[in-house]
Amino acid sequence: MKPQKGFSMIEIAVVLVVIGMIVAGITAGRKMIHQSRLNGVMSDFNMYQTAINNFSMQYDALPGDMTNASSYWPGVASNNGNGNKFVASIAPSTLVESLDFYQHLALAGLIEGSYDGYIDLTTPVVVGTNVPASSIEGAVFFPWSHQRNAVSSLWTAGFGIGGYAAPEENFIVLGGETGGWPVYGALTPEDAKSIDKKMDDAMPGDGKIVGAPGATPPYECATSHASGDILTATYNVSNQDKDCQLGFVLEYN
Predict the structure, then answer these.
(1) DSSP output for 113-145
(2) How high is the pLDDT of residue 135?
(3) How many other C-beta atoms lie within 10 A of the C-beta of residue 138?
(4) How is the chain split into domains, by residue range?
(5) 244-249, strands of its sheet edge to edge
(6) What is the pTM of this model?
(7) Cβ distance 183 to 198 under 8 Å?
(8) N or C: which end of the chain has fewer CB within 10 A?
(9) What CA–CA distance (Å, rounded) separates 228 from 11?
(10) What is the per-residue pLDDT for 150?
(11) pLDDT at residue 104, rounded to an integer
């Protein structure tokens, strides 16, 4: 029997190079997919802002807040808002302007899909039924109005840190929808900062894009997450967990 010949050093080196190339390719591919999802967040927001602009021009109203939606679409169970120029919850509790927002835009043909505008308090957010999907798995865009520093809004459980008298604004917030409500973290602070930097000022408490912790501890999206100056807070990029919601100011005249 002839002795078996082992691999030469050159052959082993070639195999190691090929394995390295495969691993590098997989890693690069994952990074590309991840970046495409972050780009999708920016594209989604731009789409909604454009849709709002077109809706406003055509109907002289803010989608979701529109008082006479039922007269434009009488054959559909369309919901009317209260016309105060803010997207918010209204009575009864099963009617929410935040969900009417998507229904009105879809009925106007400005976004794809069909949405019922109703909320079931046991399963409030259902992708494809009352909200569209987003490019981030487990997260949706949810429009609502609030002050950045309001206790009831997203910085003390979210957007608001004390000491800053902010006016009420319309936001569309990318939030994780674990448990049915989109009030949880959807992005790591690094990813939130990356989007904020590309579109605004990379400051979580200032500008047109606001980074905020989710509704449950540890509230570690930003360095000033419980007290201090909201306008000088910075993203806590050392935290690699998905602790950030991202709110985009919706422009509406």
Answers:
(1) S----B-BTTB---BTTTB---SSTTEEEEEEE
(2) 94
(3) 15
(4) 15-249
(5) 139-147, 168-176, 244-249, 209-213
(6) 0.80
(7) no
(8) N
(9) 61
(10) 40
(11) 95
Return d(Cα 65, Cα 107) in angstroms, integer: 14
Q: Is 113 left (phi over 0), alpha (psi -120 to 50) or beta?
A: left
Tell me what pLDDT residue 179 has. Answer: 63
For residue 231 the two structure tokens come to 């306008």
Residues of the chain below pLDDT 70 = 1-7, 11, 24, 26-28, 89-95, 147-167, 178-179, 224-230
Q: 115, 110, 134: which is closest to 56 by C-alpha?
A: 110
* pLDDT given at position 146: 74
18, two tokens: 């090929």
CA 82 to chain centre: 25
What residues does 222 pair with on adjacent strands? 235
DSSP letters, the chain, are: -PPPPPPPHHHHHHHHHHHHHHHHHHHHHHHHHHHHHHHHHHHHHHHHHHHHHHHHHHHSS-TTT-TTHHHHSTTTTPPP---SSS--B-SSTTBBHHHHHHHHHHHTTSSSS----B-BTTB---BTTTB---SSTTEEEEEEEEETT-TTSTTTSSS--TT--PPEEEEEEEEE-GGGSS-B--B-HHHHHHHHHHHS-S-TTSSSEEEEE-SSTT--SBSSSSSS-GGG--B-TT--S--EEEEEEPP--
Q: Go through the chain and tell me how many residues it has.
A: 253
